[in-house]
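Consider the tokenized backbone below.
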């Protein structure tokens, strides 16, 4: 809402007698409940930013609106109940609002009921309301306190939805340090720990989230959770690890997963204090079991719970994720060479790393440990071997390439194995699956992405990766063509990348001839990417040699193709075409200034070319486009040009020639203020329902129907 970004607007609302306006809107016969919902939300915002005097005005002159909020708490519409709770939460920011709620017994009882509402977002809002009261130390806490009811549900309810609602309340309480006294006084969380043995996965997951939040700030989790043991952070850490061990000894896959989750959660405590308890003594046996190694430990019972390959991978990915967090907290893990070898075993078994969850968490751990490996070429060879596997899909290839991207920060460019990796990577640029080719192209693009890293650009240029991407500009798949142009633009923005492109005949030829030809591509997203790249070149005055023709020659930038692009079916193409005209205008001005400095006057093609594209007419046409975003861009460009001319006049510098004078005069006839009125958001409604049938039609089908059908 506007008040959240402009709180000073509350004075304007009050002058407009906003409460009277809201009353009239809500009292209309058969009014849509959504209008009432928004009205109540606005009412709460006005009171929140207007404080006590505003609430007193509301209570004194429009008590029916407050009664409407009380009634809304009983509504059958969750959105309306939610908005009423939000309004109450905002009301209690002032003493008068707290007093009203304290005197309103009906509203107070309904708020307590809302804590167990069937709608999750209603429960969340009710919890936030109670948390607000706790932070404010309001006397309403004692009136609304649901602790006994929550504890009763946590300890005895068999209804999962009720338990989840009760856990939502607990989650809200642990999200703020201001609740610590309340948690100790009510012993609320002592009823949470037993729920880790629940057979409901969602309940166990929520309990772990609550513990994770609590462990991040509570100075004495043992006391807060009502556990017996040493009341220190290290004591709580040891209790959690022991609890996880005991859960694993139950022959249940569900309990094993909850136990591994608890080990992961307990690391929040390790972040805050050094502990003697070695969690690896629990994690390593689990890892060995998942990898099929022979073990003789108390955890061998876990093998009986892993009844399928998916069960094994579920545990494996959780263990790998926990090891990664541990390695980031305790760097001593990086020094254990034997442990590192165990991790590498994961990538030698296809059935393990073909699971994306295992691959992602395993590679994340490998990224953390990479700097500790003495022989880095082994790791590069391992990635190359994995990338060669035909069974690995585009998602898997992307994960491998993202990992290699991270490795480049610690790689010597002379590391053996890089040539083999490049050979394997080059084949992925030619893969039969278009999404794998796309993943490979995007990898090259990331190497040039800002903020640039010199080591990555050095790698890309050493192995001529830009030229390999240029080869894909003629790909049969339009997504690949568009991706290749995007990557090219990243290269052009990098100084070293641009120098490289200028040094090679293949890339110079592409920029001069082939890039403009992609403006004629049949796919809109290719035309968009091409316009972005050309705009980048023109903006940086780097378009020398590009085919700009006055006549309508194929595969060149000419007046006819610019006109076509401004008329394109795709609004994003039209927006970019307007930007191209803008950049061509500034290029025109630049070249005119350069001409003045030359001893011999030469009509540069950039100067002559702009005379023929009818830029003024095209911008005026775009300013009246049916699409709001196109109008917005055209109006911005015209407005900027006019402001620049006004500054020129203020400096008493006249227009330079007859062409410029005519160009400026035509644009000055556009009523900017009137055009800006067409940019208001309400015009979105019309555009949302304006379906372009030609663009939405699948032409390849015998019976031509809309794709959306």
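A designed sequence for it:
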């Amino acid at each position: 809402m506007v008040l959240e970004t402009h709180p000073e607007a509350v004075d304007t609302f009050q002058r407009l007698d906003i409460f009277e306006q809201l009353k009239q809107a809500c009292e209309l016969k058969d009014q849509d409940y959504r209008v009432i919902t928004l009205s109540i939300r606005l009412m709460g915002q006005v009171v929140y930013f207007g404080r006590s005097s505003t609430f007193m005005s509301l209570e004194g002159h429009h008590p029916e609106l407050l009664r409407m909020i009380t009634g809304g708490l009983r509504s059958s519409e969750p959105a309306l109940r939610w908005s009423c709770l939000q309004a109450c939460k905002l009301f209690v920011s002032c003493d008068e609002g707290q007093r009203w709620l304290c005197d309103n017994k009906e509203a107070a009882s309904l708020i307590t009921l809302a804590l167990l509402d069937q709608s999750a977002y209603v429960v969340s809002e009710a919890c936030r309301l109670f948390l607000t009261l706790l932070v404010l130390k309001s006397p309403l806490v004692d009136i609304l306190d649901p602790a006994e009811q929550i504890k009763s549900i946590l300890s005895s309810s068999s209804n999962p939805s009720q338990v989840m609602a009760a856990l939502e309340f607990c989650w809200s309480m642990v999200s703020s340090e201001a609740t610590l006294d309340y948690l100790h006084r009510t012993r609320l969380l002592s009823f949470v720990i037993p729920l880790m043995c629940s057979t409901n996965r969602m309940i166990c997951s929520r309990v772990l989230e609550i513990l994770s939040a609590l462990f991040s700030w509570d100075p004495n989790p043992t006391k807060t959770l009502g556990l017996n043991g040493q009341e220190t952070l290290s004591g709580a850490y040891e209790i959690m690890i022991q609890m996880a061990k005991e859960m694993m000894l139950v022959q249940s896959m569900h309990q094993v997963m909850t136990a591994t989750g608890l080990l992961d959660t307990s690391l929040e405590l390790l972040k805050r204090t050094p502990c003697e308890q070695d969690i690896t003594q629990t994690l390593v046996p689990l890892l060995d079991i998942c990898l099929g190694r022979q073990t003789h430990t108390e955890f061998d019972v876990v093998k009986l719970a892993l009844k399928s390959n998916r069960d094994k991978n579920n545990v494996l990915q959780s263990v790998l994720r926990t090891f990664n967090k541990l390695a980031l907290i305790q760097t001593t893990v990086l020094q254990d060479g034997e442990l590192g070898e165990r991790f590498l075993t994961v990538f030698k078994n296809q059935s393990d790393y073909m699971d994306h969850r295992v691959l992602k968490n395993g590679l994340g751990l490998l990224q953390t440990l990479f700097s500790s490996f003495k022989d880095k070429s082994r790791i590069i060879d391992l990635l190359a071997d994995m990338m060669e596997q035909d069974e690995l899909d585009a998602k898997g290839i992307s994960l491998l390439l993202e990992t290699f991207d991270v490795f480049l920060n610690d790689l010597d460019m002379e590391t053996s194995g890089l040539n083999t990796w490049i050979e394997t990577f080059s084949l992925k640029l030619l893969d039969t699956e278009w999404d794998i080719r796309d993943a490979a192209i995007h990898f090259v693009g990331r190497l040039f992405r800002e903020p640039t890293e010199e080591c990555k650009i050095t790698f890309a240029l050493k192995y001529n990766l830009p030229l390999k991407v240029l080869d894909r500009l003629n790909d049969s798949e339009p997504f690949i063509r568009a991706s290749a142009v995007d990557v090219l633009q990243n290269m052009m923005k990098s100084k070293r990348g641009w120098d490289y492109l200028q040094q090679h005949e293949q890339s110079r030829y592409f920029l001069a001839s082939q890039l403009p030809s992609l403006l004629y591509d049949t796919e809109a997203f290719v035309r968009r990417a091409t316009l972005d790249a050309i705009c980048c070149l023109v903006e940086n005055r780097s378009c020398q040699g590009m085919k700009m023709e006055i006549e309508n020659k194929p595969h060149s930038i000419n007046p006819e193709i610019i006109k076509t692009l401004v008329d394109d079916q795709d609004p994003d193409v039209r927006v970019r075409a307007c930007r191209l005209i803008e950049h061509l205008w500034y290029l025109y001005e630049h070249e005119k200034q350069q001409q003045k400095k030359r001893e011999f006057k030469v009509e540069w093609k950039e100067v002559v070319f702009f005379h023929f594209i009818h830029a003024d007419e095209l911008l005026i046409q775009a300013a009246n486009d049916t699409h709001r975003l196109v109008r917005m861009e055209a109006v911005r460009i015209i407005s900027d040009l006019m402001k620049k001319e006004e500054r020129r006049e203020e400096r008493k510098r006249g227009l330079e020639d007859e062409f410029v004078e005519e160009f400026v005069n035509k644009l000055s006839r556009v009523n900017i203020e009137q055009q800006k009125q067409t940019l208001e958001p309400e015009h979105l409604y019309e555009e949302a329902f304006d379906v372009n049938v030609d663009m939405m039609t699948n032409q390849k089908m015998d019976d031509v129907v809309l794709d959306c059908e």
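The chain has four domains: 1-145, 229-373, 376-503, 522-678.
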